[in-house]
Amino acid sequence: MNLPARPHLGGLPRFVLEFLYFGIKEARACLFAGLFFAAVFAVPRAGLWGVPRYDLLLAIALAIQAWMVWARLETLDELKAITLFHLIGFALEVFKTSSGIKSWAYPDFAYTKLFGVPLFSGFMYAAVGSYIIQAWRLFELRVVHHPPYWMAGLLALAIYANFFTHHFIGDYRWYIAACALGLYARATVLFRPLDRERRMPLLLAFVLIGFFVWLAENISTFFGVWKYPNQLGAWSAVHVGKWSSWSLLIIMTFTIVANLKHIKARIHVPA
Question: pTM for the complete prediction?
Fold first, then answer.
């Protein structure tokens, strides 16, 4: 992960090496998500040894999380933030799967279901938070021209609220997205794949992460971890509109992570 500086490397060799290490660090940042989704693929729908699949996935997720803290890949403060993502995600799952909404469903039996939602489901949201925290450390991220925290906080609350209220008063995600566009228009993330800082618009990073989460959602529904109403008869791709929802959720997740003390120190907010 920590190669010596190569100031004389240039041209195509530098591009190839930086691209390679960018991929390696991305894979490393996805450690929790990668191990968790490997378990999703490996555990059969019928479960193992008489233990239902959802219960096994919860046990595996807890084991991975405990190991990452024990191995000092995550700190206790970071674990608190990840636990918050778990709770936020689980509350959303309970609402979305309720009898009055039925946006999607978890069809299989489990002992560890609460309000019809398996407890492991919150770890799918926690995996996103874990990725952002790990990427921050591995890429030595910095953010310049971040909006004031109170504005970012209000936007995050609006994003989360819209996931609930759009069932009753209409979907305002595109208005919220327009506000995010204006709020983060100047925000830039600086990252270090090798020995030089590179930069990217922060909004582009949100959209790209949202795209890969959308891909993961397609894989999860294909393996029957949960199903949307249009997938009950036969599997079909998750609607591309979910990409925008995930991108907005990434903004909300990033806002929470940005309040961690060691991360806040590397964020520049114009006076």
Answer: 0.83
